[in-house]
Amino acid sequence: MDQQLLLDIARLSVDEAQTKSANGFTVQAMMVLLVALDGTGYPQQAVELLTRTKQMALSLGMNYSQFLTESKPRSGVLDESWRRTWWELYVLDGMFAGAHRATTFSLFDLPTDVGLPCEEDDYETDQIPEPCSLQDLSDRDLSIKRCDFSSFSYRVLSVQNLGKVMQNHEAAEVDATVHAQLEVLLSSWRHNLPASKRDSLRRDGRPDEMMFQAHMLNHTTSILLHQSRAQLDLAPAQAIDACAPPAAASTYHESDGCAAAAAAAAHHPRVSLHARHVATAANEIGKLMTHRTPLTLHTHFFICAVVLASIVQLSAWSGGGGDDDDAGVREQVRLCIGALRQMSSVWGLATKALGQVREVAGHVHFVRTQSRQMEQFLVDVTEEDMMSMFAADTLTLAETGTV
To answer: Xylanolytic transcriptional activator regulatory domain spans which residues (predicted)?
Structure first.
């Protein structure tokens, strides 16, 4: 059946359910549809549906455990389903805000006492343990109490770090201390991961989508945090807006409000440190693209992570370096293009992003090729050749009466 027809049927069904039955199952249906709308290339409709979904969930009290205890019928699996519904909506709200930079993460610091979801294996086998709490997650690594956090929990923590970076973005732009504190959150998340969570595999070797997304969020948040201070030449990538408006160039310097301070910052060692953070995060997103799992099985938000990595790599490629650096960055760009091409078989958003990234890559490749040819020409030409060409040009101009 045609994809557009399926979307239309789903929209009609959800609209009807929304008017007739405001309940947790309707919230779940709305969440599935808004993801489909966004990934297919209808971001405005997706955002509008996200707003309505949050309104319904909050009106039902799904951010409190009382919703779960008062729901009928009750079962361990259904209780876990409601916990997952709330936290999935929470993560989606953060992902929309981070990927598109057109909405706010309104659920970020909303009060909630809903327990954290368990591992996928436990959910699938109905071996659901007593849930860890959000306070347990906040006290991790410091509390005497031991709690085995699920991959979903680390994903929640990762999107919370995104929320903190977004909430403190303006302060971090002008206050190095705030900026450093936010980086501590991201680094601490990575350093304190249990060994079993450092890759994206479940206990039986199957892909762990929750940890995949958690790592994706950490790396994209790192780019968003450091991008304005990294002194990247973003001009070549200004045409890439499939996921979000192009980042403003030199935001860090503009916020300083002082030309002298901006000039000094350009030579400050921290600038190269920020560039290293951004480049490393982009390369880590590249590693996620190399996992031996079909990219179409991942969240469509990975498209926006790939686009963000593409912008970083294209900026680095445009800036140029040695031949070895040039080849490495070029292959990273090619990897991003390949990932977008694979995801475009399912997601319209990837098709749009693929066209934009390929166009910019083609332009950068042309400019870099022309530059190398000119450099080689200047190396090969002798001083005598230069004088001869100058004399010939002078004679031509004289003959045409322009000198």
So the answer is: 46-123
